[in-house]
């Protein structure tokens, strides 16, 4: 096969990652459901907006967080590119009032034309190619209502090429957020809720300019 033909048939990293999650959706969903929204996101519960507002969950996985947010009275839009995980979410959280969308960062081109009072990006950033991270933060800024919060949880641990898990440059992310007009308001590190010794998590919270 020539180099040109090889380039045409090469599958992008983002698609390979989605394929891995599709192939192990039930097992991955089982892992996600071992912990609760309150356990995983305890450090940001005080920043959730008033019930009845629109919130966005990007990389919604098994639907655990989207369902918990819906139960709190939010109008939830959940973005998940893995069809397998979306099916698992429908089975595990059938009563949750959530709008599911097949989409992904950095473009999020299928989202409805609205802004959100809170955006959660949980365990997603490490899947993004470095070249996609700057446009991703710009897109998220466009989707955030004035004065509202964006929370990004970041995996800190070894890379996993099979799942397209890469290292994340925290300082670069903070610089991109500032350049997009976001103000850093919180940065906290915690252990892994599943007890993995080699994995920790950093939660970064940013606020959009203006008044809520």
Automatic annotation (TrEMBL):
Alphabetized InterPro entries for the sequence: Methyltransf_25 (IPR041698), SAM-dependent_MTases_sf (IPR029063)
Protein origin, superkingdom: Bacteria
Q: Does Transferase appear among the keywords? A: yes
What is one Pfam family matched by this protein?
A: Methyltransf_25
Residues in domain Methyltransferase?
Answer: 55-147
Q: Name one GO molecular function term.
A: methyltransferase activity
Biological process per Gene Ontology, one example term: methylation
Q: Which UniProt keywords apply?
A: Methyltransferase, Transferase
SUPFAM superfamilies reported in the protein's UniProt record: S-adenosyl-L-methionine-dependent methyltransferases
Question: What protein am I looking at?
Answer: Methyltransferase domain-containing protein
Species: Sphingomonas rubra
